Amino acid sequence: MKKTLGTMVAIIVVAILVGNFIMVMHASAEEKARDGHFIAYDNGTVLDTKTNLMWAAKDNGRDINWANAKSYCENYHGGGYTDWRMPSLQELTGLYDGAKTYAANCGFDVHLTELIRLTCSFVWTSDTGDSEAILFVFGTGWNIWRPQSNDFLRVLPVRDVK
Questions:
Q1: I want to staple 122 with a disulfide (CB 3.0 to 4.6 A). Which of 24, 58, 105, 153 is the partner?
Q2: Options 3.10.100, 2.60.40, 1.10.3470, 1.10.10; which CATH number does 31-160 get?
Q3: 117: left (phi over 0), alpha (psi -120 to 50) or beta
Q4: Higher pLDDT, 17 or 55
């Protein structure tokens, strides 16, 4: 009984220490830059204060199909957070800003804050139907249905801020 109680106390102490470490890690993120309602932090995240959504500061950086994009978001740990997900069409559309432009690595222009870096302008959404999903084009503001097997797109993780 004493051995079991000691083990339980040790487990509780370790859990508290790990929890405190995680809280300190999140609390230590410092602001790097601002652009309107966007705030970039040094932990690789960008907060949209208008929507209360937190975005990864960059996309996945390579071609990816829809299923792998979904898995990438669900397993993403940017900023130390574990509740990332794939964005909806509405959420990505909310990032689009025709007044802002920068060139993505793939040669296409993208229209959104420079605090969020895309390596190409085509980004998967969580919106699906049958074997297709909607992609959002940051070069034009358009959205297009494409087979989920297409692998020339990127993904940009998002999470809700509580």
A1: 153
A2: 3.10.100
A3: beta
A4: 55
Q: What are the residue boundaries of the structural domains of the chain, listed by start?
A: 31-160
Decide: 119 and 150 in contact? Cβ < 8 Å: no
- pTM exceeding 0.90: no
Q: Which two tokens stand for residue 40?
A: 């970039």
- What pLDDT is stored for residue 159 in this prediction? 98
13/71 Cα distance (integer angstroms): 33
pLDDT digits (tens, 9 = 90+) for 128-158: 999 999 999 999 999 999 999 999 999 999 9
